């Protein structure tokens, strides 16, 4: 008999035995899943993280009141261990994770050490990967393609194609994604997406991996698979840190190390196995059959009384570490409670005094140069117990809590295999896995692949340009050489600008807002530089827009009987193409600077003044002097002027006249009427090119700013 539990891919081995009476007993024992190791991955060093007195605050509200989120927490996260950061909602788990990853840096004080050295953010970024909560994947890629993109970007040209294939193959097999390699990412289940997110980051074997709520949205079986995967990554010598809400007892047991936060302070740090015994020493008895993870959250929420202060003090706000095989720090509970009560009453008075002065709040920031110990006074004034533990630890407050923070000895899991890892931290690693040109090329190919996959939009654009082209051609049919229909022809020229402007602009407004979450993740995890990404994205749509524009212009130019002269057609087309590209750039700027709602509203509205001052509605002379500067900014004006000059300037012969009198028979009359007699086509083109580059650079700067401000 063989029972296969597919959900966990683990065979169950039945052991059949017979008792004395001859009846059959079947014991089903779950087999140990064969731990697969990733052998093809590049070797990386094991990394331990120690953080001390981490303080983080944000400004809030109109009065810019400071809100303290992390209150001088300390902790240690070791390689080879799977660490869970737990705590009630709003305790500061994600904030701590964001700070440890280096994703958040402003407003933070304290020290973070990597293998005993102060963290160098740039160096650290090369060693770590941050897998965010929402998987942030490109839905239009097959699993295999997504892996190839990651491998090409992260492993660069130093590894051959075969080596990359081996790495991809091995990771996909290890993570159980091999059979889904030809599945589109958008069709993967939640658990598979999570595994793919991990697989993508595993390509360059980061020794530290951070996960924000890796089990959120997964069923219990997928949760188990996910945590089992994290555990196996840790067992291979990596430092795996994840935030998790409230794991089941089964999941909880799989973690090696637990770091629990409550209201921005550490209430427990140590082995998961030691949690219950440790809490017991503080008179917090976890009932039998009660999930220890739930119990510690309940305690942190205050459901079992006011224990948070005691816990923070006992664990010295993360400076103590409760480790299996090590004696507990000594805690004099009675003295601790007395000290708390005494200080509570003293502090209500202190708090009142401080608050009545009007400038001290619980969320007071640390002043420059001050340290956490100084700040404790303020924290203290608002019932923060952290200082108590510090003063107590030196034996003056009646509570004896040995601080073993300087103790670098640690008990690693016995089953950790660090054979895959080099032990030295590489000092001169490149910032990215491959050159910026390669990054540009890979991202460009990926973007073109998206366009190929999502042909609906391309067909729509093609259809719109051809349909509108024929519609305009029919409406203004054969008017281009008719002296009596010059005003209508000018209307046609203006409509061209309008149509090309809107079709180009609306497409690009959404480019960045839709890509932003993936961009944030990939850029933060050092897949590529923003410059390479930006160039690839902005270049990728230019050929399509050019083709659509050429098609549209050819149709309308021919049907409306504009001058049948190749050079005039070239000039006309040139001005139209530039208008398209400039309008694309406007869309990119708006998309980079604003969110979707504001952008979609503002981009067309912002274009209205440029349309008004294009020279079609009011000639330059008729515009009030103080408003004339707007015409210089109006790219529509340059486009309109360019097409008008291509049509009527350059010594065009008189138009045909089928009526008694045609006022605009002479093209010069039209140019005089438009105030374009002295206008220069070359200047119009130069102005459009300058505006194009100005907008493209602005879009890049806005995007960079948005990327920074999102962190
Ligand atoms: N930029 C910010 N401005 C104001 N408050 C913030 C900001 N970022 C975080 N906070 C506050 O800090 C506290 C901790 O937030 P954080 O997201 O770290 O909590 P969490 O423990 O991860 O919660 P959850 O489990 O619900 O995700 C919350 O009260 C949150 O409102």
TrEMBL record:
<dbReference type="GO" id="GO:0005524">
    <property type="term" value="F:ATP binding"/>
</dbReference>
<feature type="transmembrane region" description="Helical">
    <location>
        <begin position="489"/>
        <end position="512"/>
    </location>
</feature>
<feature type="transmembrane region" description="Helical">
    <location>
        <begin position="571"/>
        <end position="593"/>
    </location>
</feature>
<dbReference type="InterPro" id="IPR003439">
    <property type="entry name" value="ABC_transporter-like_ATP-bd"/>
</dbReference>
<keyword id="KW-0472">Membrane</keyword>
<dbReference type="Pfam" id="PF01061">
    <property type="entry name" value="ABC2_membrane"/>
</dbReference>
<feature type="transmembrane region" description="Helical">
    <location>
        <begin position="533"/>
        <end position="559"/>
    </location>
</feature>
<feature type="transmembrane region" description="Helical">
    <location>
        <begin position="600"/>
        <end position="620"/>
    </location>
</feature>
<dbReference type="InterPro" id="IPR050352">
    <property type="entry name" value="ABCG_transporters"/>
</dbReference>
<feature type="region of interest" description="Disordered">
    <location>
        <begin position="341"/>
        <end position="368"/>
    </location>
</feature>
<dbReference type="InterPro" id="IPR013525">
    <property type="entry name" value="ABC2_TM"/>
</dbReference>
<dbReference type="GO" id="GO:0005886">
    <property type="term" value="C:plasma membrane"/>
</dbReference>
<dbReference type="InterPro" id="IPR043926">
    <property type="entry name" value="ABCG_dom"/>
</dbReference>
<dbReference type="GO" id="GO:0140359">
    <property type="term" value="F:ABC-type transporter activity"/>
</dbReference>
<feature type="transmembrane region" description="Helical">
    <location>
        <begin position="458"/>
        <end position="477"/>
    </location>
</feature>
<dbReference type="Pfam" id="PF00005">
    <property type="entry name" value="ABC_tran"/>
</dbReference>
<keyword id="KW-0813">Transport</keyword>
<keyword id="KW-0547">Nucleotide-binding</keyword>
<feature type="domain" description="ABC transporter">
    <location>
        <begin position="49"/>
        <end position="288"/>
    </location>
</feature>
<keyword id="KW-0812">Transmembrane</keyword>
<dbReference type="InterPro" id="IPR017871">
    <property type="entry name" value="ABC_transporter-like_CS"/>
</dbReference>
<dbReference type="Pfam" id="PF19055">
    <property type="entry name" value="ABC2_membrane_7"/>
</dbReference>
<dbReference type="GO" id="GO:0016887">
    <property type="term" value="F:ATP hydrolysis activity"/>
</dbReference>
<dbReference type="InterPro" id="IPR027417">
    <property type="entry name" value="P-loop_NTPase"/>
</dbReference>
<keyword id="KW-0067">ATP-binding</keyword>
<dbReference type="InterPro" id="IPR003593">
    <property type="entry name" value="AAA+_ATPase"/>
</dbReference>
<feature type="transmembrane region" description="Helical">
    <location>
        <begin position="685"/>
        <end position="703"/>
    </location>
</feature>
<protein>
    <recommendedName>
        <fullName>ABC transporter domain-containing protein</fullName>
    </recommendedName>
</protein>
<comment type="similarity">
    <text>Belongs to the ABC transporter superfamily. ABCG family. Eye pigment precursor importer (TC 3.A.1.204) subfamily.</text>
</comment>
<keyword id="KW-1133">Transmembrane helix</keyword>
């Amino acid at each position: 008999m063989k029972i296969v539990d597919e959900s966990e891919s683990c065979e169950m081995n039945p052991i059949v035995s017979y008792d004395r009476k001859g009846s059959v007993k079947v014991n089903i024992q779950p087999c140990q899943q064969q731990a697969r190791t990733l052998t093809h991955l590049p070797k990386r060093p094991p990394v331990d993280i120690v953080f001390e007195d981490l303080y983080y605050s944000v400004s809030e509200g109109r009065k810019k009141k400071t809100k303290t989120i992390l209150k001088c927490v300390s902790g240690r996260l070791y390689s080879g261990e799977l660490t869970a950061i737990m705590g009630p909602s709003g305790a500061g788990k994600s904030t701590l994770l964001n700070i440890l990853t280096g994703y958040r840096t402003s407003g933070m004080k304290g020290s973070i050490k990597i293998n005993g050295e102060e963290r160098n953010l740039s160096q650290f970024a090369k060693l770590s990967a941050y897998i965010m909560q929402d998987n942030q994947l490109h839905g239009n890629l097959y699993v295999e393609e997504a892996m190839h993109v990651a491998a090409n970007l992260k492993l660069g040209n130093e590894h051959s194609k075969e080596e990359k294939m081996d790495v991809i193959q091995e990771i996909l097999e290890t993570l159980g994604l091999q059979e889904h390699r030809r599945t589109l990412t958008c069709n993967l289940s939640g658990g598979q997406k999570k595994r793919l997110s991990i697989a993508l980051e595993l390509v360059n074997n980061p020794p530290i991996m951070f996960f924000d709520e890796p089990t959120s949205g997964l069923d219990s079986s997928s949760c188990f698979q996910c945590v089992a995967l994290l555990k196996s990554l840790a067992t291979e010598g990596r430092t795996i840190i994840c935030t998790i809400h409230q794991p089941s007892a089964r999941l909880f047991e799989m973690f090696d190390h637990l770091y629990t936060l409550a209201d921005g302070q550490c209430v427990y740090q140590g082995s998961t196995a030691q949690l219950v015994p440790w809490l017991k020493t503080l008179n917090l008895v976890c009932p039998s059959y009660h999930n220890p993870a739930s119990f510690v959250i309940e305690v942190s929420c205050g459901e079992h009384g006011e224990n948070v202060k005691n816990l923070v003090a006992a664990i010295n706000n993360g400076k103590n570490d409760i480790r299996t095989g090590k004696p507990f720090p000594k805690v004099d509970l009675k003295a601790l409670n007395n000290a708390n009560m005494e200080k509570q009453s003293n502090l209500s008075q202190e708090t009142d005094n401080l608050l009545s002065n009007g400038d001290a709040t619980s969320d007071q920031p640390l002043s420059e140069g001050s340290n956490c110990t100084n700040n404790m006074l303020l924290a203290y004034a608002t019932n923060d117990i952290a200082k108590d533990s510090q003063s107590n630890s030196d034996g003056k407050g009646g509570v004896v809590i040995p601080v073993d923070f300087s103790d670098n000895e640690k008990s690693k899991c016995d089953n950790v295999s660090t054979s895959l890892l080099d032990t030295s931290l590489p000092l001169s690693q490149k910032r990215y896995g491959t050159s910026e040109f390669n990054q540009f090329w890979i991202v460009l190919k990926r973007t073109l692949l998206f366009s190929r996959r999502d042909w609906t939009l391309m067909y729509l654009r093609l259809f719109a340009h051809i349909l509108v082209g024929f519609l305009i051609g029919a409406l203004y049919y054969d008017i281009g050489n008719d002296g009596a229909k010059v005003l209508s022809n000018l209307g046609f020229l203006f409509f061209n600008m309008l149509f090309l402007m809107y079709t180009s602009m609306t497409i690009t407004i959404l480019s960045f807002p839709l890509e932003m979450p993936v961009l944030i993740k990939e850029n933060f995890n050092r897949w590529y530089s923003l410059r390479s990404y930006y160039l690839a994205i902005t270049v990728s749509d230019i050929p399509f827009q050019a083709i659509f524009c050429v098609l549209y212009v050819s149709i309308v130019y021919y049907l409306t009987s504009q001058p049948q002269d190749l050079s005039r057609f070239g000039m006309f087309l040139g001005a139209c193409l530039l208008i398209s590209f400039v309008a694309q750039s406007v869309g990119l700027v708006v998309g980079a600077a604003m969110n979707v709602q504001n952008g979609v509203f503002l981009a067309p509205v912002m274009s209205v003044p440029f349309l008004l001052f294009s020279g079609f509605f009011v000639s330059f002379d008729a515009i009030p002097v103080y408003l004339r500067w707007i015409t210089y900014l109006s790219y529509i004006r340059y486009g309109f002027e360019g097409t008008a000059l291509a049509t009527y300037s350059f010594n065009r012969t008189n138009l045909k006249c089928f009526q008694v009198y045609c006022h605009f028979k002479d093209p010069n009359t039209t140019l005089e009427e438009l105030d374009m007699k002295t206008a220069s086509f070359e200047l119009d083109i130069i102005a459009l090119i300058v505006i194009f580059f100005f907008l493209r650079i602005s879009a890049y700067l806005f995007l960079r700013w948005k990327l920074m401000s999102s962190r």
